[in-house]
Amino acid sequence: MRVVTFFTKENCPLCDKAKVIVEELSKELNFQIQEFDIYKDDELLEKYQVMIPVIAINAQELGYGIIDKFDLKEKLLQKLD
C-alpha cells in the first residue's frame, strides 16, 4: 500500500487540523499514514521544528504549516499515480 508520511508534535493545533485532512484524503485516495512525532527524533526536530505539520511522500515534502486540502489532494494525486 502507498504511504504518506505525516510529521507532527503533541499540542499542535495546526497538526490536529492537518491530521483530519490527511485522514480524509487517505480514505478517498487509499493510502496509509505513517506518523512521526518530531520531538522523539533529534534529526527530525532539527529539520522540521518550525515547519510542522509536514506531509511528505517518498521523502518529498508536499505541504507544511497550514495545509490546504485541495492543494494537498492535487499534489497527492500526482505523486500516488
From TrEMBL:
InterPro entries, sorted: Glutaredoxin-like, Glutaredoxin-like_YDR286C, Thioredoxin-like_sf
Protein name: Glutaredoxin family protein
Pfam families: Glrx-like
Domain of life: Bacteria
Lineage, broadest ranks: Bacteria, Bacillati, Bacillota, Bacilli, Bacillales
